[in-house]
Amino acid sequence: MEFRNVSVILTDIEGTTTSVNFVYEVLFPYFREHLDDLREMTDDPAIRKALESTKNLAEEMYSKSIGSSDELLTVLRQWSLEDKKLTPLKTIQGILWKKGYEQGELKGHVYDDVLPAFKKWSSQHVKIAVFSSGSVMAQKLIFGYSTSGNLTEFLHAYYDTETGGKREETTYRSICKKLEVEAENVLFLSDIVQELEAADKAGMQTIQLVRPGTDTAWRNTVNDFSEIQLN
């Protein structure tokens, strides 16, 4: 499938560059298994800030006070089980995953077609950016410690939920502004129709990745990155 005048490719991760199973069967369980490690990591300002944000958000959501670290960890575990797209959770997940990647306990899954496509697009002077609900730290880790090696050299920018919701048109307009590019020159890749709809409304070109387990549900679809042609 051919796309014209693309200067930036903006890609999702889960279900697009990376198997959904890796996230749900490897990353999320690892996070829950290592939640207690946070008790020994409170000297880290990022941990303290994220835990405080978790406490404030949980108290607002559940209309009750969170008075102990046990309660706080229970909230984080529950949010993980429910796959909540909440920034404090994503931040803490990224910090614990960093430890796992650096210790060699985790290796980021990417599909085999990702590296050749990244090389090809880069050779065509197309910038590659990432937009995922996972934190920027988590994004850098999955590509930095991937099964295809360190892919961060190909990536120009990273965006997470700090920028806005993935199903909100205004978020994609904001990303274009940050990238200093017109929306019509951005090709957005995702497996989720609601995200594609939001990007489409913002003026981006869009394509659905129909990886194993994904149902075809968009006007432009491919099974892997090798089918995407830029002109």
Can you lay out the helices and strands and say which pair or pack?
Layout: E1 2-3, E2 8-11, H1 20-33, H2 45-62, H3 69-81, H4 87-102, H5 114-123, E3 127-131, H6 136-144, E4 155-159, H7 169-179, E5 186-190, H8 193-201, E6 205-209, E7 221-222, E8 229-230
Structural description of this entry:
The protein is α/β, with parallel strands linked by helices and 231 residues long. It folds into two domains: 2-18 and 108-230, HAD superfamily/HAD-like (Rossmann fold); 24-102, Transcription Termination Factor Rho, Rna-binding Domain, Chain A, Domain 1 (Orthogonal Bundle). The chain contains eight helices and eight strands. It has helices at 20-33, 45-62, 69-81, 87-102, 114-123, 136-144, 169-179, 193-201, and strands at 2-3, 8-11, 127-131, 155-159, 186-190, 205-209, 221-222, 229-230. The strands form two sheets. It has a six-stranded parallel sheet with strand order 4-3-2-5-6-7, sandwiched between helices. The longest helix is centred in the first third of the chain and has 18 residues, at 45-62. The mean pLDDT is 96.
Structural descriptors:
Rossmann fold, six-stranded parallel β-sheet, 231 residues, 8 helices, Transcription Termination Factor Rho, Rna-binding Domain, Chain A, Domain 1
What is the count of β-strands?
8
CATH fold descriptor of the largest domain: Rossmann fold
| CATH class (first level) name of the largest domain | Alpha Beta
Q: How many structural units, i.e. domains?
A: 2
Give the CATH superfamily of the largest domain: HAD superfamily/HAD-like
The main sheet comes to: 6 strands, parallel
- Name the shape in a single word: globular
Q: List the total number of helices.
A: 8
